[in-house]
Every structure is written in structure tokens, then in C-alpha cells.
Known about the structure:
Layout: E1 2-6, E2 10-15, E3 18-21, H1 30-39, H2 41-54, E4 63-64, E5 72-76, E6 91-95, E7 100-101, E8 106-108, E9 116-118, E10 121-127, E11 143-150, E12 153-155, E13 180-188, E14 199-204, E15 207-213, H3 221-229, E16 239-241, E17 257-262, E18 266-273, H4 286-293
Parallel strand pairs: 5-16, 7-13, 8-18
Antiparallel strand pairs: 1-2, 1-4, 1-13, 2-3, 5-6, 9-12, 10-11, 10-16, 11-13, 14-15, 14-17, 17-18
Amino acid sequence: MKFVMYNDNQPGILTDAGVIDIGDLCPGGGQAAMVHLVTNYDDLKARLETRAAEGTPVAGAQLQAPVRPGKILCMGGNYREFGAREPSPMWGFTKSLHAVLDPGGTVVLPDIDANIFHHEAELVLVFGKGGKDIPASEAMDHVFGYTAGVDVSARMPAPGGGRVPNTLPVAEHKSHPTFCPLGPCIVTKDEIADPGKLQVTLSVDGELRVNYNTDDLAHSIAESIEFVAAIEEISPGDVLFMGTNHQGLGAMQDGDTIEMGLEGVGSFTFSVSDPLKRRWPRGVDEASAKDVREGAGGPGRQARPLPAE
């Protein structure tokens, strides 16, 4: 099944006919309702299936981010860049919770001295069971389902954050308000045959940029969960961004309409606003793609805004 939050943070089931309200089955509204759903799913499943088949769609339902997590955990450097790189040691970071953005929302680029702002389209796990020090052999038991997310990244002149032993640092340059678009729904894991073989796409104003498969992961989902759970305690409703293949990165700039798609989950759009009206070359940022592919440094180190017109 596909679960959403809609209108005033009400839980629902997304069907071909529309959104079916399940507020009476998942009390509390907002994240409390979603946590109730993911922790009691087995007991609720029969009633949810009946509601999905017999319920009346809500007229004019407006989708919101399907989860407002207590933690946004992220894997870094977790793709082989179409096989060009060998797996590197695992590392990760967190994003601030105020970064979450609803489908149809607007990413606002802040007034900071960024070289460039990149879109990173990613598979995102939603946890249904909490824990700490979870072995890879048990990791998938903790996954409730999957959603799609964009890790908006401001590339700064000097690296930000850093890798701190025994903790996942907050990536400040990735944590500005609106820098975590999520959507359109959470798909339960039983509907995804193999999350390690899903196509991820992202287009800007209709131009396809990102187009990769999760089979390019450097470290599996189970390995990644084991890694983050050795550092951070996981709670139901938390999410884990699995990282991105950097070969389709491009600039995000004022006026863009961006659509992200994830096989088996669906797609959602959002727009971009830059009060400073900075401009970068359009299309794929080939210099950054090459830097990551060849291990020459972080993406976006050489990019700078174009001169004002």
C-alpha cells in the first residue's frame, strides 16, 4: 500500500481513485499518526486494505511530505558512479528537521556564498521499528517502506560539516529550510520486490538529468542500516537517505521546476526560488561529475555563479 499525509497533516492511503482518509485508524494527526501506522501496521493491515477498496476519495486532497521524521539520516559517497569507483569506507551525516519540504513546495536558495546548489535524488528508507546496533542480518526487519527524496546541497568554497568519530555530523550546508523535499508517498516494503534495483530519475524543466539505478550502490541497504545504527539510535518514522549517483548533478536556480521519480514509488515536483537571482550553466554539471567519478575531490568545488547579466 501507499501512504500519504495530506491537507492538514492527515494520514491517508493513496489509491488509483485518490486519497482515502484513515485518520480514525491512525489517531493523533501528523507524525504521531504516521508513527502509529508504521508501528501497528501488521494489526491494522486488514482494515487498511478494506478501507482502500471501499473508502471514498477525499475531494481536492493536497499531498504533503509523507513523513516528518525525528531523524534524517544520510549516507555519503554511497554509489560507484556507474561502476567507475570502488566502494569507499562508509560515512554519513544528518539533515536538520526543518529542511523537510512538501510536494509542490518551493526550495528557497539562501543568501550564502555557495559555489553552486545541487539536486541529489535518492531512495529514502522509512523505519518502522527502532533500535541501536542493528546487525545487517536483521536490518531489513526494521524497514517499513520507501519514499523518494532530494538532498539539496549547497556546495561551499571549503568543505563543511566534516566526519566526526562516533557521531553523524549535521551537514549545515544541506540543512537550510526547504532543503529536503520528500514525496509523494511511502510504499510498504512488501510492494518493492528489490529496493536494490530501482530506477531513480530527476528532470529540470523537462530536461532529464538524473537517471541511475540503485544497483549501483556501493554499500547495500542492510550494510548502511548497520552503519548508521552503530552510531545513532533509530526510532519508528525516522528516515535514511541512501545517497546518490553524482553523474547527473546540475545547478538548481531561480524559476526551475524539478520532478523526481522513483520506480515503484512515484514522482513529485517542486519549484526553486532564489531571491538573489544567481545563475549557473544549465544542464549536467560535468565538472562535478568528473571530480566525483575520478575521486578528485568533492562536487562543485570549481563551480561559481555566472556574472550578472
